[in-house]
Amino acid sequence: MSNLIDLIKQLRERTGSGIMDCKKALLANDNDVQKAADWLREKGITKQANKAATRIAAEGVAWVMVNGNKAVVVELNSETDFVANSDAFRELLKKVNSLVLAEGTSEDIEDVKALKAEDGKTINDLFVDAGIKLGEKLVLRRVAIVNKNDDEVFGPYIHMNGKIATLVVLKGGDSETANGVALNACSNNPTYRTMEDIPSEIIDREAAIELEASKQDPKFATKPEAIQKRIVEGKVKKVLGESVLSEELYILDDSKTIGQFLNEKHATVVSFVRFAVGEGIEKKKEDFAAEVAAQFSK
Description:
It is built from 13 helices and 8 strands. The chain is of the alpha+beta class. Among the domains are: 2-54, Helicase, Ruva Protein, domain 3 (Orthogonal Bundle); 55-147, Elongation factor Ts, dimerisation domain (Tetrahydropterin Synthase, Chain A, 2-Layer Sandwich), CATH 3.30.479. Helix 5 runs antiparallel to helix 7 (123-134) and helix 9 (200-214) crosses helix 11. The longest helix has 17 residues, at 87-103. It is elongated. The protein starts with a helix and ends with a helix.
């Protein structure tokens, strides 16, 4: 079986054809790669290879691994949730996480794919092998490598067995505090750590919007300029504060904000990472009935 997988891998890399087409071609040509490649060309299958690029891998798993002062967050994608929950996919996830945690220094995907395991196989090889076994397009979408100092604390949080993975780094505090903040970051999906992190152009744009909106209120025009300014600033803070971690209500005690909670713990957020599986990927709408009908009409 392993020899056939290697041959399928060679043929797929040479022709760009699908896994099952490569397997069929090899079986029809006594596992001769060159003859199988010619067979695929004769059948016109290689002309369809570009269609694979349109297949969307928007399911998958996001995961966090921590070892000492280093942590890794990865997102691996598949085409279906069924494959994402399979043992083979989870094993691939574990191998990738472990290898990046042990050897990774760059978040560039091509650099990550080139990392080698002890058996000499690269992460890219692992993906090809797993793709052949699972019969789906698999993608290493993104990687975050986070290093901390000895006086800092990691707070990892994984939601719904890998639908969302969050990692928070705190200066001060303890692991319980960090985990609580990570839960908040997972649930509310903030963009910024504090109000000070918001770019000035974002604040200016929101201020212009709020000023124009306030002018629609006749009472606003009767107020002194200094009061108008404070009103606009208050509205800007309220709107933008919804995307700021320190301004969020603490999920485990909504009588205080995350900022207030951290002050009590003498801690501050250094950084955070949040990967939600498939975010930003436009998922293909499937018509299962039409797909089945199309298969039977061939």
